[in-house]
Amino acid sequence: MVKGQRRLVATGGWVAEGRDIGTVVCPDSPLKVYLTASERERAERRAAETGGDVEDVLEAQNDRDARDRDREHGALRAAADAVELDTTGLGIEEVVERIAALAGERGIAADSVRAGVRR
C-alpha cells in the first residue's frame, strides 16, 4: 500500500492524511502537519460522526492510540520536522486556513491546500 501511496503523491498536487503519512509514506514532503486535539474533543468529534457514546469512543480511541504508538512499523508519532497544530476548539475552516497559511509560508500554493483539505 505504501508504494501505491507514494506513486500517487509523486504525481503532485496532493494533500494526504494518515497516521504514518509524514513518517513512512512521504518523509520528504515539503510540509508535514501533525494535527492534535484533546482526547475529549477527539472522542466528541468521533461520537458525533458515528452516533456512538462519547465515553465508549474515548476508551476505544485511547486503546487504539496506545497500540499505534507502540507498534514496530509506522508508529503513531509526529515526524521530526512536522508542524504540530492543536485543533482543540477549532472548526474545520479555521484548521484549513492555518494549514493554508503554513503552506503559503513554504511557497506551496495555499489554494491547492484549501481545495485538497475540504470535505
Structure description:
- It is a single chain.
- With 119 residues, this protein is mainly α.
- The protein has a single domain (2-117), classed as 3-Layer(aba) Sandwich (Rossmann fold).
- The chain is built from six helices and two strands.
- The protein has helices spanning 2-10, 21-25, 39-50, 54-70, 92-105, 110-117; strands spanning 33-36, 83-86.
- Helix 3 (39-50) crosses helix 4 and helix 5 (92-105) runs antiparallel to helix 6.
- The radius of gyration is 15 Å and the shape is globular.
Morphology: globular
CATH architecture: 3-Layer(aba) Sandwich
Termini gap: 23 Å
The arrangement of helices and strands along the chain is HHEHHEHH
Short description:
By secondary structure, the chain is mostly helical. It has helices at residues 2-10, 21-25, 39-50, 54-70, 92-105, 110-117, and strands at residues 33-36, 83-86.
Write the layout of secondary structure elements.
Layout: H1 2-10, H2 21-25, E1 33-36, H3 39-50, H4 54-70, E2 83-86, H5 92-105, H6 110-117
Helix pairs in contact: 3-4, 5-6
Key structural traits:
7% strand, 119 residues, mainly alpha, Rossmann fold, 55% helix, 6 helices, 2 strands, two-stranded parallel sheet
